[in-house]
Amino acid sequence: MKMPNLSKATGILLVMLGTLGYVTSDAASWTALIPAFVGIPMFLFGYFGEKETLRRHMMHAAAALSLLGFLGTVGGIPKTISLLAGGTVARPQAAVVQAAMAVICLGFLIFAVQSFIAARRARKV
What we know:
This protein is an all-alpha fold. It contains five helices and no strands. The chain has one domain.
């Protein structure tokens, strides 16, 4: 899959995750929309990255945003693991949404780094 398409798909997933988190929390807090706030620019980076002259910059921006998204939400992973093991945490729904966002962002970041490495190797040949 081309990186701009992956960026757009990741953006859509994050917007859906944020919307779902917000709706299922009965709109208790706007912070449930944080995945959507990350997803919108992620989608736009993919959209503008379709243009060859902008692709490199847009995909690097998407990777940086993905890294920030991962670092900001990685704390939800141990909380979610604790929930799955039968433990209790404050705001369990927030923990699950954070963990899901962390996994989505990490997945995109892994593909982005692989793509950057492949592109660099292809230029050297």
